């Protein structure tokens, strides 16, 4: 889950830095003072000021950063660890690899400005040594596993219903996949639809969802989401303080425009407000604490959770229930392959590293039934370095791109279903694709305006090239230029004829012939795992005999059944909010 940063010294040799002239000479190896340094995170420059006293880092201030919303917490966690160990050999914060690297680069650069290397920091004796974990036993009414959207919804509801609640979160911050998602929320009959005169109904939403899930959905669960989605969005707005934009998005598979967009168009708005609400209700969220197993009594009733913190082994006993809200298993390759052999390591993951299916495994161990585990949704155009979903790839949806392999050939219809394109890319050389776009297409897709920061990141990491000729662009990625040119000439001919003779591409709005040309290198990644614990409409977990497991509830991506074979965009937020609330309310009874 976490890994050591081993490249610090190499980074140290290469990075640029700015020294601040406030250093005093002393007997120490590093002169006391404050020093500035810069590194490169995911969003660009991270600039820090490091204070050194007696060869010890006493403070790190971030002066400038443009990281993904929510990832500032990663820097806070790193700072805490660096200060407590007086070392830069700290674990990268899982899920925030590039941010962590950029932050550590910046501190290394600051040390260089001090004329020092990380190994000159005073050794911090004892603190690093392995200590036996202390054992703590506690009792609460309800223990919730996971502080993503489902877990936090459950926590707020349960607490407001009068229960004593604690939330366990294995990562150093709240949010899970909810935080890094666009967090659009499908809500039939919502207030913006009414204003815009869009006719909709829970029934229509349910029909769309079941069609999108190839009829493999549990219709009872879908009905619950459909009938409560709007109330959930209103609850987030009125009770939790989430700000929804005054606009809607139209996602594939929905028959009408019905998806609300949170302020900032990402999950930070939801999670920040939910955490603030939880704090205002005095709900403890125990970070860096991993639930390991469920405790049951002789009748199979769940009566607690065993968990591990950094230096503590916990036994949490429950008076009422445990709610599993630990998300999906998109980041667990072994588990993916177990249920769907095509989802091997060649397919990256858009998920946070916390999405390892822990709750599914814990539930199964005590007899829970699993449903739809083989249904794993992929997204075709993601960052080959990190698996992050790339919005630059959206040009494809406007019809402006062709996708080729290293050999310069097209291999799939660019507007096929996500899963078909993903699997086709996986079979190509290096399991990557190259997406070509010209200046006309770039402008028509408004990519520069909307995703300028992502483009900057892509250029910097050599995943996107802008070139005046096709040959130059191809050379950048070592694509067979001759074949590529021939492919493009053929495609432009198809555009003029109005018929793609090779792949029957359904939309070809314009030829690709206007310099400059852009090529994006991308790879498919797992996006959502539809399968999981079987629940009923009360969010109770069901065992292999079809009976309720007493004392156990589940909500969110950890459950199966709502989405069938395929989740429609923006249905996850509705699902996790609706069932998170239901789990919280029922567990508190
Ligand atoms: P959902 O959308 O269903 O709420 P998320 O992925 O947003 O799912 O949130 C799930 C959360 O559960 C993540 O923050 C993840 O780190 C956390 N989590 C996963 N496994 C465990 C575990 N064993 N113990 C504690 N927290 C966990």
Written description of the protein model:
The protein has 589 residues and is of the alpha+beta class. It has three domains: 33-120, Sufe protein. Chain: A (Alpha-Beta Complex), CATH 3.90.1010; 134-375 and 530-587, FAD/NAD(P)-binding domain (3-Layer(bba) Sandwich); 380-525, Alpha-Beta Complex (Flavocytochrome C3, Chain A, domain 1). Helices cover 33% and strands 24% of the residues. The protein is built from 17 helices and 24 strands. The strands form five sheets. Strands 5, 6, 10, 11, 12, 13, 22 and 23 form an eight-stranded mixed beta sheet that branches. A hairpin with a 3-residue loop joins strand 12 (302-308) and strand 13. Helix 2 packs across helix 3, helix 4 runs parallel beside helix 9 and helix 15 (470-477) packs across helix 16 (481-497). The structure holds adenosine-5'-diphosphate. Adenosine-5'-diphosphate (ADP) is lined by residues 145-151, 168-171, 175-178, 290-291, 325-327, 354-355, 358, 556-558, 576. Residues 41-114 form the FMN-binding domain. Keywords: FAD, Flavoprotein, Oxidoreductase, Signal. Its EC number is 1.3.99.33. This is Urocanate reductase. Residues 1-19 form the signal peptide.
Q: Assign an overall shape.
A: globular
Number of domains: 3
User: What is the level-2 CATH architecture name of the largest domain?
Assistant: 3-Layer(bba) Sandwich
**How far apart are the first and last residues' alpha carbons, in Å?**
36 Å
Helix content: 25-40%
Q: What is the makeup of the main sheet?
A: 8 strands, mixed
Q: Counting H and I runs of at least 4 residues, what is the number of helices? A: 17
- CATH domain class of the largest domain: Alpha Beta
Distinct ligands: adenosine-5'-diphosphate
| % residues in beta strands | 15-25%
Mean of residue pLDDT?
91
């Amino acid at each position: 889950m976490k890994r050591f940063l081993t490249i610090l010294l190499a980074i140290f040799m290469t990075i640029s830095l700015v020294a601040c002239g406030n250093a005093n000479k002393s007997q120490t190896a590093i002169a006391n003072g404050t020093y500035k340094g810069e590194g490169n995170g995911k969003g660009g420059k991270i600039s820090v000021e490091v204070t050194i006293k007696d060869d010890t880092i006493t403070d790190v201030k971030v002066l400038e950063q443009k990281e993904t919303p929510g990832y500032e917490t990663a820097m806070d966690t790193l700072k805490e660890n660096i200060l407590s160990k007086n070392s830069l050999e700290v674990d990268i914060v899982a899920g925030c690899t590039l941010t962590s690297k950029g932050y550590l680069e910046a501190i290394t650069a600051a040390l260089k400005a001090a004329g020092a290397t990380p190994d000159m920091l005073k050794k911090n004796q004892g603190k690093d040594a392995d200590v036996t974990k202390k054992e703590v036993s506690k009792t609460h009414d309800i223990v919730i596993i996971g502080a993503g959207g489902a877990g936090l919804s459950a926590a707020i509801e349960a607490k407001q219903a009068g229960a004593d609640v604690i939330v366990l979160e294995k990562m150093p911050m709240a949010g899970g996949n909810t935080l890094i998602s666009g967090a659009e929320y499908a809500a039939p009959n919502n207030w913006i639809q009414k204003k815009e005169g869009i006719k909709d109904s829970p029934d229509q939403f349910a029909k769309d969802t079941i069609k999108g899930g190839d009829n493999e959905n549990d219709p009872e669960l879908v009905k619950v989401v459909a009938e409560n989605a709007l109330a959930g969005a209103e609850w987030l707005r009125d009770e939790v303080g989430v700000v929804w934009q005054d606009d809607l998005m139209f996602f594939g598979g929905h028959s009408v425009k019905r998806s609300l967009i949170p302020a900032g168009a990402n999950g930070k708005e939801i999670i920040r407000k939910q955490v603030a609400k939880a704090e205002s209700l005095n709900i403890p969220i125990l970070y860096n604490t991993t639930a390991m197993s469920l405790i049951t009594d002789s009748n199979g009733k769940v009566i607690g959770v065993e968990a591990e913190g950094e230096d503590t082994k916990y036994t949490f006993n429950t008076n009422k229930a445990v709610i599993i809200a630990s998300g999906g298993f998109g980041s667990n390759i072994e588990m993916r392959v177990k249920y769907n052999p095509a989802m091997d390591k060649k397919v990256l993951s858009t998920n946070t590293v916390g999405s390892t299916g822990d709750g599914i495994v814990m539930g199964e161990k005590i007899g829970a039934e699993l449903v739809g585990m083989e249904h794993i949704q992929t997204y075709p155009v993601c960052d080959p370095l990190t698996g992050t979903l790339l919005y630059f790839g959206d040009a494809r949806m406007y019809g402006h791109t062709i996708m080729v392999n290293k050999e310069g050939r097209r291999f799939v219809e660019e507007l096929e279903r996500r899963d078909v394109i993903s699997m086709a890319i996986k079979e190509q050389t290096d399991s990557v694709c190259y997406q070509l776009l010209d200046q006309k297409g770039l402008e028509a897709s408004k990519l520069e305006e909307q995703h300028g920061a992502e483009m900057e990141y892509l250029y910097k990491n050599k995943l996107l090239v802008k070139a005046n000729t096709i040959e130059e662009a191809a050379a950048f990625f070592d694509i067979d230029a001759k074949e590529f040119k021939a492919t493009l000439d053929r495609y432009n001919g198809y555009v003029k004829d109005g018929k793609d003779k090779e792949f029957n591409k359904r939309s070809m709005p314009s030829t690709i012939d206007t310099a400059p040309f852009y090529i994006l290198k991308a790879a498919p990644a797992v996006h959502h795992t539809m399968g999981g614990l079987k629940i009923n409409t009360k969010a109770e977990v069901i065992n292999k005999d079809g009976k309720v497991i007493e004392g156990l509830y589940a909500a969110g991506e950890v459950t199966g059944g709502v989405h069938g074979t395929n989740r429609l965009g923006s249905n996850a937020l509705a699902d996790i909010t609706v069932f998170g609330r239901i789990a919280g309310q029922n567990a508190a009874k």
